[in-house]
Give the backbone structure.
Amino acid sequence: MPKLPRLRLSHMGMFVRDLERMVAFYKEVLGFIESDRGTGRGFSVVFLTRDPNEHHQLVLSSGRPETSGPTHAVQQLSFKVESLDDLRAMHAIVAPRSDVTEVLAVDHGNAWSVYFRDPEENRVEVYIDTPWHVSQPHRVDLDLSLSDDEILRRTDERTRKDPTRMPMEAWRDRQAKRLRDAGIS
């Protein structure tokens, strides 16, 4: 069994009933800015941050049923790792477990991720950033059996066609300016 990689809590996602109301609340009350918005897996999704080094710290997603209570709001729990080898190690740890479901490796263009459901079906993400930003949501399958160089090459090649692509440092600089302009830095 591979050694468990170092994990850092990175961001969380919540299913919400009234997406625009919740986006306004987190922007107005807690000072988040919107990084991206779009549709993914059939839900409207808004990405929010207060950190120029993080594409998002909070993900708000439509889809929370009106009849759900307060215990049905968390969309995912995300942890950042330091390398593709760490990502492979997490995949090797969770994939054979019978109490883990929906193990998926995903290339988001701006991150490489492994997703899975814990024993109570909460979604967990373990990921590492890529060198680029592309608008989200953005999702294709990721083959972790490839070398680091090949994964990097494929993501680079595929995202070059995306008009929103920019170096991650340029995106972070832009976010830092937006946060300063909003009086949050």
